[in-house]
Write a structure and sequence with these properties.
- It contains six helices and no strands.
Length: 156
């Protein structure tokens, strides 16, 4: 396997692993708070579920970029391309924006955890909690889009 392919696979791994771990952490914060809050008011489960799902999106974004990188390398089709080292570096770097922006899932989890508290005490304001969490999501989307543009911009 060429150095270029190894570099590209490293980019794919970073794109999947970093946001995946971050999403798991963010979801765990919200899940713990939601479980505790449901003791007080189990009828808010649907509202908590929306807040619980949000930090997971960064992991999905990372998976999509990882998949696109694997496809670009030819691993999905079983025809691994012979990549130059420069192309490998370019593809590795294409995974970096979502890997770094995917860390936002940790902080989004904290915002959503606070949203669980708000929803517990004022269920009618759960939409406000969701809006605050979406502001954090915006930066993950920017990293996701940047990675997409980079992946498609690298000629193989």
């Amino acid at each position: 396997m060429s150095t270029g392919v190894v570099l590209a696979l490293t980019g794919a791994a970073l794109a999947v692993v970093v946001p995946g771990i971050s999403s798991a952490l963010g979801i765990s914060y919200v899940g713990q708070a939601s479980a505790g809050a449901m003791v007080e008011n189990p009828r808010n489960f649907g509202r908590y579920l929306v807040l619980l799902a949000l930090p997971g999106t960064q992991g999905i974004y990372g998976f999509v970029i990882g998949f696109l990188l694997l496809q670009k390398v030819g691993l999905i089709a079983g025809q691994v391309a012979s990549l130059s080292t420069d192309t490998g570096w370019a593809l590795l770097l294409a995974g970096v924006p979502i890997a770094v922006a995917g860390l936002s899932a940790i902080w989004q989890g904290k915002v959503c955890t606070s949203g669980v508290g708000l929803t517990t005490h004022r269920p009618e304001d759960s939409g406000k909690a969701l809006i605050m969490a979406v502001f954090v999501e915006f930066y993950a989307v920017l990293g996701f889009l940047t990675s997409i543009f980079m992946v498609f911009g690298v000629p193989v």
